[in-house]
Amino acid sequence: TTIMHVFVESTDSKGRCVSTSTPLQVGFEVCLESPLCFVIREKHEKNICHCCLTPLSNMFMCAGCSDPATEAYLKHLPSLIDMPTDLDPDTLRILLRMICSPALHQAATGVTADGHFGINVFDLVTHRDRCSPVWVSSLRDTIGRLLELVPTCQLSVEQLVDLACITNANAYGLGDPLGTNTDIGFGLFPFAAMFNHSCAPNCVFTGTAHGQLSIRTTATIPANTELTFAYIDLYQGRIERREALWRTKHFWCECRRCSTPFTDSSDRFLDGVLCQRCAGVLLPAHSTENDWVMAAILSGATTNHQASPFCEDCGTSTDANWIEQIRLKADTDFNAAMQVYHSGAYEAAVDALKLFLEIYAGLLHPHHVLRLSAQCTLLNASRALLPIERYSLEAIAAAKSALRSMKAILPPNHFEIADYYHQLCLLLKHDTAAQWQASQCRKKCVAIRTICCGPTHPRTLQGELAMV
């Protein structure tokens, strides 16, 4: 593990967090951390080495790899197939891996694993009190059966329950070593778990070779600034983001983006309905919107944050029921188009998605979440019908529209922006009249991926070769 120019501090408002001790330039690698414990997901179990994560073909482990803990895990892995349990297969696997892990056994005795900045995994938050009692009970029963398989384990049942809860709250996905967006597994990274979330982050994490997690800066950062990355998809409305974080991570986000007054934030576009008089965005009249929405979420009530809406441009009031009807109808129509897409009827899906975008062009803001989702799916459906020229044009238009929205909403140097530049480059490079545009898309993709992943990462190299 390599950790550079940062320190961990404790605050009353945020708990433990990571800050930089010196100014950092954009693209600086703050941390490269190996997992304390990791597992390959069931569907990838014979395609990836369970020791070094090298891609394989119908094997569990490289011939050259030697690790007693991994060998013990693989020895007992077949026993999980018929084990009676309500737990999902991947939870079962990480439990077995923990039971076979000497590093976790040492942590249980107070020994901190080398390479994790002096952080003991048992010091990480568990949120055990927020876990379902049924799930915890199933954990205990299953752990008892697993300990019968590995009686040499030094961890108690309750310690393993805590570890399962810690994993549930703190694990990070392991990226495909070939550089695709595939999530092949997940692992525990004690130092990375110290980083707080922000909806306007200044860092990003990505998987690298051998299951390591790299954390890099996506902006120039002054000294003594907290370092953050995103736990969730950032192209969501403010309420949706906060509710997702509350449900899964058990905190109410007060980051800079979520704390900016709604009327001054690009968040107002993400679920924005347009004024039928002047096409301005309709806003809620409540100045304390976030407070009462939070109260509604905590109590389990239904939120309706568009009460007494008015246009931000012309000031015209609009009936809240009409706005709610537009939103419900848009959800229904979008889901219907997605059903066509998922059925594999791509020509019909293109027509359905184009119709959706046409109908809601004057009703939903151009950066509305549903309009972006429709453009992204239209791109995928059109690409599935290539090389028919009509669909190439449809795909290019959808990619450009999606990029406009992403650049307006997402933080600079965001992975997803790079991915769509890459897709647009692949579409344009076959048009002799669009070679300059394709080249510019390649450069922008590579620039962002170099910042987020580093110059030698497979995803960066993939971008470099896009024009070939």
Secondary structure elements and pairings:
Layout: E1 2-3, E2 6-11, E3 15-20, E4 29-33, E5 37-40, H1 68-76, H2 89-99, H3 102-108, H4 133-149, H5 157-170, E6 172-175, E7 183-188, E8 196-197, E9 203-207, E10 213-217, E11 228-229, H6 238-249, H7 256-259, H8 267-270, E12 282-283, H9 289-299, E13 310-311, H10 320-342, H11 346-359, H12 369-383, H13 389-409, H14 415-428, H15 435-453, H16 458-464
Give a written overview of the molecule.
With 468 residues, the protein is an alpha+beta fold. Helix content is 43%, strand content 11%. The protein has 16 helices and 13 strands. It has a 4-stranded antiparallel β-sheet with strand order 1-4-10-9, with helices on one face. α4 crosses α5 (157-170) and α12 runs antiparallel to α13 (389-409).
Summary of the model, kept short:
The chain is α+β, with helices and mostly antiparallel strands and 468 residues long.
Query: Quaternary status of these chains?
Result: single chain
Strand arrangement, major sheet:
1-4-10-9
Mean pLDDT: 89
Which sequence of SSEs, written as H and E, runs from N to C? EEEEEHHHHHEEEEEEHHHEHEHHHHHHH
Query: Total number of helical segments?
Result: 16
Low-confidence stretches: none
**Largest sheet, described in full?**
4 strands, antiparallel
Morphology: globular
What proportion of the residues is helical, as a percent range?
40-55%
| Overall number of strands | 13
Whole-Å distance between the termini? Answer: 35 Å
* Range of strand content: 5-15%
CA gyration radius, whole angstroms: 24 Å
- What is the structural class? alpha+beta
